[in-house]
Each structure stands twice: as structure tokens, then as C-alpha cells.
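Appendix B, Record 12. Input sequence as logged:
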Amino acid sequence: MRARAASGPERPARMGNSSLKMIQSGTDFARYELGELAVLALRDGYVDMPPGRLRQKGDRPFGAELPGQVRLVDGKLRLSVNAFLVIEQGRHILVDTGAGNAWHPSMGLLLRALAEAGIAREDITAVACTHTHTDHVNGLVAPDGSDAFPNLEQLFVPQEEVALFDRSERLARFRQRCVPMGNGFAVSDHMVAVAAHGHSAGHTMFAVPSGGEQLLIWGDIVHVPSIQFARPELTWELDRDQVQARSTRAQILDRAAWPGMFVAGAHLDFPGIGSVARDGDAFRFSPL
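Logged structural output:
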């Protein structure tokens, strides 16, 4: 693989009816067609977080004034945890792996989702990580401790975050398969890494163009979809750099609102794929 220069996603060519279509779905997966590609949304589960994780400017938590449109489950923010599989000319590239059994018991469904979709674990030869937080990389290990993807050849990791594999006892076995990537790195003919820093040191999204349209698999750009599209200035307590995360989100939402552009989010309500439109100075998300 080689890097190539890229300042960000290119403007899609298609301006008419969308070619991105859901063609099959189940409990834990949804399959889409995007031009010549197949894209699968895979449900790893969900995680419930305290409302105070959602932050106002100045890293201020919400108290009783939490906006009414924020959806809570038993007083908690419920975040979907999704991964996405891109199938390109028979090559299976998994974007993020979920949490495996390394965090809450409400997660770790990725292997079940793959099986429901009729995808064998052995088919996946490449994994691309948006970043290295627990709910994005720990699914590399199956619940029985074996490799979740026994034929894994390449593990694409943001260059700023490769060091995790040197210090993690759980993930050290994958270090020799790590391929560091920076902005503009070509993961495949149809997938390019785009720097989207702020949530983590190397947070990265993937631009996937095909059929005159483009899908942005954007990782953790939005954590709480019920409010952060309408108020993109709101950040997440666990953002490494909240100012940068806010700026990055504004830039990416602006790009995502182009015609012919779609997004896939790790924490958008499953299946997490849809379109973004401007709504005055804010944005709105429409599931596909």
C-alpha cells in the first residue's frame, strides 16, 4: 500500500437519484450497494453513558438544563456501537471491530452480526481502525481469546496511535500486522484515509467513493445524534482535544452535506448510514 496526497473527500459527481440502496437487513446487520461496492453495517451493541459526558463550550457538563431533544434510557445516553464492512472486488475490509468482551456486556455482537449476514470471519483479511479506543479495536480478539479474524493480513492504524499495540497485552499479538496510515493513505482502490483529529490523537475517517457518490465512514465525529447535528458545537467529555474535535466536526458536517455524499457513524443509531443536510446554521441527519 502507498500513501497518496489528499486534502479530504472529493465532491461526488452524481447529482441525480441515489445509487446507495439497502438491499438486505437483519437484526444485527444491513447490506447496502454503493456503485460496484457492497457495504455492510454491523451492530456490535450499545453502551450507556452518563449525560454529563455531553459537554458545552468550556468543557462544561449539562445539569438540569440538558436539552429536551436528547434521548435518555433510564437516565443515560445510549450510544449505538457500529462497525462497517466494505467488500471491494472480493476483498473484505472491516472498519472498526467493536469492543469484543473487553467492556460492557451490552457489546461484543460483531461476530454474531457477521454470521447473520453470511460473512465468514475467515473472509476478512484487512481491518482499518478509525482510532484505537476500546469499542473500536478490542473486537480483534474473540471471546475465547483467539484471533477474531484468523486470516487478517493488514491492520491499518492511524500513525499517531500505533503505539497502543506496543503497550496493550491484549493487542500486542497484532503489532507486526499494523500498517501506519496518515492523511491521504490509500487503504484500497476505493478507500482513502482522511485525518479527522480531535476525538483522539489520530482519529481518522475513510472516504469511500463509488458510482458517482461517496460514503464517509467517520468513526466518532458524532456521539449523540439526537443533539449534535442540531448543535454541532457540543463535544464529548472523552474527546482528547475538545476544541479540535468541535472544529473537525463542523468541517466534516459541511462536507457531508454535499449532494451525493453519505455518512456511516460508529455511534449513529443502528444501522448508522444516512445523509446529512443543512438546516440553517445547523444540520440534520436522515437515515437511509
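The two ends are 32 Å apart (CA to CA).
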